[in-house]
């Protein structure tokens, strides 16, 4: 039995080594390939930026102003809120007065489903004026070339959606550093592997999704009672016969002073969302935790010399892969946090294990139950979401 366990752990480590090598390769290939050319200004179509808002983030004004100062000829920015007493409304009213030719504000949008974010977006879809849609999270700050860059791949009619990853380049607190390491060293490289294997992504990231209105309709539109709707919309866009592209544009998103507990609850929600959307593919992530398997193998083998050598090699390759990701994603502010990488791996492993079962999540203060391929309903009274 002990020998069998050692063989299983060794197999998991070998698989993880291949995963680390693939992460490094596809990261280098993606970020060192020539940047795609941008279309000429005279052929740029009009764009509607749709932003669902709930609450007021610390840098809200700077975030929203950045959307209104794009180097792009024709676009509008629509903001939608459920609550008429939301603290963001006065600032958004000021923004509307500052940019009256671009900004429109919609408040009191009665929920059309459990997912209030997508519910608000359905109202904005009805009010927008242009064919190209860019869904944007409200806590994102962008540069002036953002619109031109993220919509450029849509010139190809086979591209149905463009999405952007987000990273925190200069985290100041432990929780933010752990979150940033996960996004930079794990999520983006993994997405690039999936992109290469599938000829495009089969999911999307809600921080930015750019698509034509016609492609959204063919993908089935927005679903207002679904969790991970961005992830699912990317999957449905691919199933409709389109390619989903990952943009070279990287969004900046720092989780501030988020605690480790808050980080775990958020990532557990993501993990269960992915499991319900992707099924058994979720369990293939077992080959992403080489450092964890190495430590377990050391303990099981009684610190045998060959396991010490294998563990050292695994850690060296993991750190090399992480360093390649940090440098190519221009996250030099994470270098000082790389000592946390084994703890980040252990945390990811724990979240993956917890995400492998259960159907309860906490989202925006509500306890929800996931079923089928990511649909949600309010959990039974008295039930709590596991953390």
What does this entry look like structurally?
By secondary structure, the protein is an alpha/beta fold. It has one domain (1-33, 131-387). 47% of the residues lie in helices and 14% in strands. The protein has a 7-stranded mixed β-sheet with strand order 3-2-1-4-7-5-8. A 3-stranded antiparallel β-sheet has the order 10-11-12, covered by helices on one side. Strand 1, helix 2 and strand 2 form a beta-alpha-beta unit. The radius of gyration is 22 Å and the shape is globular. It comes from Oscillatoriales cyanobacterium SpSt-418. Keywords: Glycosyltransferase, Membrane, Transferase, Transmembrane, Transmembrane helix. The chain crosses the membrane at residues 6-28, 281-300.
Overall 3D form: globular
Radius of gyration: 22 Å
**What is the helix content?**
40-55%
pLDDT averaged over residues: 92
The SSE string, one letter per element, is HEHEHEHEHEEHEHHEEHHHHEEE
Q: In this structure, how is the largest beta sheet organized?
A: 7 strands, mixed
- Order of strands, main sheet, comes to 3-2-1-4-7-5-8
Structural domains: how many: 1
Tell me the β content. Answer: 5-15%
Structural class: alpha/beta
Number of strands: 12
Low-confidence residue ranges: 382-387
How far do the termini sit from each other?
A: 32 Å
The tally of helices reads 12
At a glance:
It comes from Oscillatoriales cyanobacterium SpSt-418. The chain is an alpha/beta fold and 387 residues long. It has twelve helices and twelve strands.
């Amino acid at each position: 039995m002990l020998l069998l366990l050692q063989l299983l752990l060794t197999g998991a480590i070998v698989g993880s080594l291949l995963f680390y090598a693939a992460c490094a390769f596809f990261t280098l290939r993606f970020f060192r390939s020539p940047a795609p050319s941008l279309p000429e200004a005279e052929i740029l179509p009009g764009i509607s930026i749709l932003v669902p808002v709930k609450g007021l983030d610390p840098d809200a004004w700077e975030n929203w102003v950045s959307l209104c100062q794009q180097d792009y000829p024709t676009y509008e920015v629509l903001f939608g809120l459920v609550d008429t007493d939301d603290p963001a409304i006065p600032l958004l009213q000021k923004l509307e007065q500052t940019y009256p030719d671009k900004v429109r504000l919609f408040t009191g949008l009665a929920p059309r489903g459990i997912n209030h974010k997508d519910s608000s977006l359905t109202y904005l879809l009805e009010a927008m004026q242009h064919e190209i849609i860019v869904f944007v999270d409200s806590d994102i700050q962008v540069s002036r070339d953002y619109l031109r860059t993220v919509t450029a791949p849509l010139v190809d009619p086979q591209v149905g959606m463009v999405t952007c990853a987000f990273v925190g380049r200069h985290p100041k607190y432990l929780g933010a550093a752990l979150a940033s390491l996960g996004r930079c060293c794990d999520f983006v490289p993994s997405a690039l592997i999936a992109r290469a294997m599938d000829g495009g992504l089969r999911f999307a990231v809600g921080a930015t999704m750019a698509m034509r209105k016609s492609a959204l309709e063919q993908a089935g539109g927005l679903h207002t009672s679904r969790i991970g709707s961005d992830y699912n919309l990317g999957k449905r866009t691919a199933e409709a016969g389109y390619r989903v592209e990952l943009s070279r544009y990287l969004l900046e998103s720092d989780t501030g002073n988020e605690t480790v507990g808050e980080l775990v609850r958020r990532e557990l929600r993501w993990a269960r969302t992915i499991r319900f959307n992707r099924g058994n593919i979720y369990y293939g992530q077992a080959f992403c935790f080489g450092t964890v398997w190495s430590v377990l193998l050391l303990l099981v083998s009684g610190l045998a010399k060959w396991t010490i050598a294998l563990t050292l090699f695994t850690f060296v390759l993991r750190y090399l892969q992480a360093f390649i990701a940090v440098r190519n994603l221009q996250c030099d502010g994470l270098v000082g946090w790389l000592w946390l990488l084994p703890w980040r791996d252990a945390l990811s492993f724990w979240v993956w294990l917890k995400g492998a079962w259960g159907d309860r999540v906490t989202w925006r203060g509500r306890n929800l139950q996931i079923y089928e391929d990511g649909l949600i309903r309010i959990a039974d009274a008295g039930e709590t979401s596991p953390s």
